[in-house]
Amino acid sequence: MAIKVGNTMENFKNEQEKYYNLVNNENATPEQLEAASKNMFEALKNDLTTKITAEARASMSDSNVLASRGINVLTSEEREFFNAAVIDGGFNDAKILPSTTQQRVFEGLVKAHPLLEAIGLQDLGAVTKFVYSDPTRTYMWKELFTDIQGQVNAAFREETITQLKLTAFAVIPNDMIDLGPEYIELYVRTLLIESIATGLEFGYINGRGPTMSEPVGLLKDVDAVSGAVTDKVSSGTLTFAPSQYGETVTGELYNVVKLLSTNAKNEARNVSNLVVMIINPIDAIGVQFRNTIQTSDGQFVTALPYNISVVESEQVPVGKAIFMLKGEYIAAIAGAYQLKRFDQTLAIEDAVLYTIKRYANGRPKDNKAALVFDLDIQFPVTP
Predict the structure, then answer these.
(1) Cα separation of 354 and 336, whole Å?
(2) What's the CA gap between 357 and 337, in Å, rounded?
């Protein structure tokens, strides 16, 4: 930020004038010159400190006002990066987005797409490995001095997510470059959020596994021996049919929760407040219709028993419902967002195509991380 010295350096100017007068005074002693010089630089330091602090506060205040008005505010690093795009007429090859922009992309992903938040998506940044534990194996009773190496190895597992790449395509109009760094950043960030979210949701719901260079989706099972990825078989049918005391809905969902309360090894696990139902927006309307009541004060409230939360995703087939247990699906993205100009001719005038790549992967911890049910929601026919 450039500092405008202006007329606010009065103390310094006064001491500077005194010093110059002494310098031009043949009778001034060395001690007087030294003292005047010291006073001048002390005044300079104090005046500059006061001025810079005031300008910084004003700048912060302006930024806060702009942010509160919904205006995109950039950090100095972001401004430098996107200003370079303005000057160069686009992004040079192998450009890495600023870390703060990458963080804002991730925040936008989980905020605008509830499925990614519910599924527990993690952004590992430059790290491409992470460790998770089996809570049933992270303790042990043994005699003193007994070797515990085998137990530790069994309790913790390391996962690598570098094996799959998720590529987003960004078409950036030349006119966008002319609008300035704030608008370029907002455009690129919004484009990334939507394109990457679409790819992640498809992979985490319908992914066909490593042989297809895709994650293993929630709709799939993995054979423990061969590793083959196949479609899940429906665990039953849900009607959400009305009943006098709601026993139909509570009974149907009780069976769902009960099935999820054990893992693939038939070991019990906690499901309280962890069950998520993922459905297509079309079916969400039917579920909402069957589970909405009007309270005594006239408010309409929608709620499912057992604190089951509902998340919508267009990637779920109509007529299907996925019930997932939070924490039982591994989903992560890693590596830096790298922009690369696409070297093929794009049949769009006044625009440049870029590819933006990151590492990503996902898979269930076992085949009971999620269950699939058919939906058969009937509506009353008006005669």
Answers:
(1) 15
(2) 6
Two tokens, residue 43: 């005044």
Answer with the one of 50, 68, 86 that is the final residue of a domain.
68
In a domain, 74, yes or no: no
- List pLDDT tens digits, range 140-171: 454 544 444 444 444 455 665 556 888 877 77
Shared domain for 273 and 200, answered yes or no, is yes
Instruction: Please give the full DSSP string across 203-253, using - where no structure is assigned.
Output: HHHH-B-GGGTS-B-TTEEE-TTT--EEEPPP--EE-----TTSHHHHHHH
Please give the residue range of the domain that contains residue 38.
Answer: 11-68
Q: Which of 335, 278, 362 is nearest to 106 (CA)?
A: 335
Residues 6 or more apart whose Cβ sits within 8 Å of residue 172 = 90, 91, 184, 187, 188, 351, 352, 353, 354
Instruction: Report the DSSP beta bridge partners of residue 164.
Output: none
Phi-psi group of 88: left, alpha or beta (phi > 0 → left; psi -120 to 50 → alpha; rest → beta): alpha
Q: In angstroms, rounded to a whole number, what is the distance separating the alpha carbons of residues 271 and 325?
A: 7
Domain endpoint, select from 33, 53, 68? 68
Q: What is the pLDDT of residues 39-59, one digit of tens each?
A: 876 776 667 556 655 554 555
CATH number at residue 227: 3.30.2320.10
* Under 8 Å between Cβ of 309 and 253: no
